[in-house]
Each structure stands twice: as structure tokens, then as C-alpha cells.
Specification:
single chain, alpha/beta, Spore Coat Polysaccharide Biosynthesis Protein SpsA, Chain A, two-stranded parallel sheet, 7 helices, 9 strands, about 40% helix, about 20% strand, globular
Length: about 240
């Protein structure tokens, strides 16, 4: 029997990206069909363009695909949390819509969840790579990971990648302080504080294939700083 996996894709103003995304999802289904029963769950996070309408139209031609929507923009972590709550399988995964990771790596990542609560793609792992990513984005991500490494019980190379595999039951009841980009690290902290296990899979992080990044350097730094301070206080009080 094939393993059921729900692949969550958060969307925010990604109208230009959607045709390529659906092509990749179709290719992914074909590539992994012998191993996994894939269910696609696209979460429109309050898009202001034609993302929601186009996603619903394209989803008609891709089996086992659902599109759900937030009535307002909550943030990428909030969209993933919604996807986890609405997943129909115990194993779920999340990936960016922009194609910055190769989703075929799920073939290696999904089996790793057998003895873990969270599996994260890790471009900063010694076996991982970064190709063509803007320096400012790398600065924010690497700095945040260094900060979290000093706080987390589990010492990882990457804490901010949204390309992940989840044991859905390990995240039941999660309430995020931040539903934006720092919420990605907060989801890992949720596992870490409860004594769960996080494992890394070396992966290649590349440049966006289409669209425009929603990350903002100053806002991102402030988000991560606030979360790190909150996690440090929790650790000292534990």
C-alpha cells in the first residue's frame, strides 16, 4: 500500500507562478506515484490578485487537489498551520510555490519521518547547497539559524526552511505567536520544546523560478529577534 502524503503549498499573490507550479505538481505525482499517494492542498493566504480564482481553475485538472483560502493574509506559517489542520493524512509536507527546492527530494525525506516528528530540508547542512540566492535573503536566513542554534535543544544547520515533512499529530493544537516567516522556526521550536525529534535532509536551495519574494529584510530581522527572545525566556523558565 502506498503511503499517503498531503503536500501543502501556501500561496500569496502567486498568480504568475501558478502555471509552472501546477506543471511541477503534475510531474511530481508522476515521479512519485509508485511510492506515495499524493494529495495536494493549496492554501491561498488572502491573495490580492487572481491567485485564488486561477488556482481553483487549474486544480480541476489535477486529481486529489484541494484549494482552501484565508479571508485575510496571515503569513506563510499560518497558511502551513491551516494546511496541517486540514490534511487528510498523518504525513504532510510543505513547499514554496516558487520552485526554490526540488520537491522530488520528498522521495528521501518522507521515509525519514518514520522515527521523527519533523524532517526539514537543510541547504546549510554540510551536504546541502545554495545556488543563486540573493545575498540579503541568505544573510537573514543564516543569521536567524545561528540565533536559533544557541536556543534550541536540538542543534540544526537550518531552522527557517519551509520545505518540510511533518507528522501531523505532533502539531495538533499548535498556536503560533507569529504566523509570518519566523513562524517557520516557531513550528520547529514547538517540536523541540516537547522533546520531539527533528532531522535534517541536505538539500539545494535555488533562486525563485518565477514571481517575487515576499520577504522583507528589516521586518524579517525584527520577527526573528522577537521570537528568539520569547523562546529564550521560555527556556530559562523551563
Amino acid at each position: 500500500m502506498r503511503t499517503g502524503v498531503t503536500l501543502i503549498v501556501p500561496l500569496f499573490d502567486e498568480e504568475d507562478v501558478l502555471p509552472g507550479l501546477f506543471t511541477r505538481l503534475g510531474e511530481l505525482r508522476s515521479a512519485l506515484d509508485g511510492e506515495f499517494a499524493l494529495h495536494f492542498l493549496l492554501v491561498d493566504d488572502g491573495s490580492r490578485d487572481g491567485t485564488l480564482a486561477l488556482a481553483r481553475r487549474l486544480a480541476r485538472d489535477l486529481p486529489e487537489t484541494r484549494v482552501i483560502a484565508h479571508d485575510r493574509n496571515r503569513g506563510i506559517a499560518g497558511a502551513i498551520a491551516t494546511g496541517l489542520a486540514r490534511s487528510t493524512t498523518e504525513i504532510a509536507a510543505s513547499i514554496d510555490a516558487d520552485g526554490s527546492y526540488d520537491a522530488r527530494e520528498l522521495a528521501s525525506m518522507v521515509p525519514m519521518i518514520a522515527d521523527a516528528d519533523l524532517v526539514t530540508a537543510s541547504p546549510y547542512h554540510p551536504g546541502g547547497r545554495v545556488e543563486g540566492v540573493p545575498p540579503l535573503r541568505l544573510f537573514l536566513s543564516r543569521s536567524a539559524s545561528a540565533l536559533y542554534r544557541a536556543i534550541f535543544r536540538q542543534k540544526l544547520h537550518t531552522y527557517t526552511s519551509c520545505f518540510r515533512v511533518y507528522r501531523r499529530s505532533s502539531f495538533e493544537g499548535i498556536r503560533l505567536r507569529s504566523e509570518g516567516f519566523s513562524g517557520i522556526a516557531e513550528m520547529a521550536a514547538y517540536v523541540d520544546r516537547r522533546g520531539g525529534r527533528i532531522v535534517e535532509h541536505p538539500a539545494t536551495l535555488g533562486v525563485r523560478r518565477a514571481g517575487r519574494s515576499k520577504a522583507r529584510l528589516a521586518a524579517g530581522i525584527a520577527e526573528h529577534a522577537r521570537l528568539a527572545a520569547a523562546l529564550w525566556r521560555l527556556r530559562r523558565g523551563a
